[in-house]
Amino acid sequence: MSELFLSESELRDLTGFRQFSKQVTHLKAQRIPFHTNRAGHPRVARAVLEGRKVVEKTAKSWSPSWAGNQVAI
């Protein structure tokens, strides 16, 4: 199984830049979806470039179910 994200060398090959801020600028200009990790390094999902569908996790809204929380007096 391949890695989930592109390696640093693959990212350099893709963008043509070694500096992370320039990689980010290039990715934005090319409209390539990415996120930055805590250290500020851009991360590109391999699935994006391979044309596979990337499933985004969305937070489901939570609402309490009051019907089950009735107290008998």
Description:
The chain has one domain. With 73 residues, the protein is mainly alpha-helical. The chain has a two-stranded antiparallel sheet with strand order 1-2. Helices cover 32% and strands 5% of the residues. The protein is elongated.
How is this structure best summarized?
This protein is mainly α.
State the total count of DSSP E strands. Answer: 2
The biggest sheet amounts to:
2 strands, antiparallel
Strand residues, percent: 5-15%
Low-confidence stretches: none
Keywords for this structure?
single chain, 73 residues, mainly alpha
What's the arrangement of secondary structure elements?
Layout: H1 8-15, H2 20-29, E1 35-36, E2 42-43, H3 46-50
Antiparallel strand pairs: 1-2
